[in-house]
Amino acid sequence: MFLRFLLCLILLSPAVAPTASAQQVESPLPPSQERLEKMEQQIEDLRRALEAMKSQLSAAEPKTEPKTEPTPSPPNSDRLAELERRLDLLAQELEQLGLGQVAAVADESQYGFGPAASKIYREEPGLSFGGYGEMLFQGFDSTRDDGSASGKKDEFDFLRAILYAGYKFNDRWIFNSEIEFEHASTGERGSVSVEFAYLDYLWKPELNLRTGLLLVPMGFVNELHEPTTFLGSSRPSVERQIIPSTWRENGAGIFGEIGGFTYRTYLLNGLDASGFSSSGIRGGRQKGSKATADNLAWTGRLDYVGQPGFLAGISAYFGNSGQGIEGSSGQVLGVETSILEGHVEWRRKGFELRGLYAQADLDDVAELNETLGLSGASSIGEELRGYYLQAGYDLLARSGSERGLIPFIRYESLDTQSKVPNGFLRNPSRDVETLTLGLSFKPIDRIVFKVDYQDVDNGSETGIDQFNVGLGYIF
Question: pTM value?
Answer without folding.
Answer: 0.79
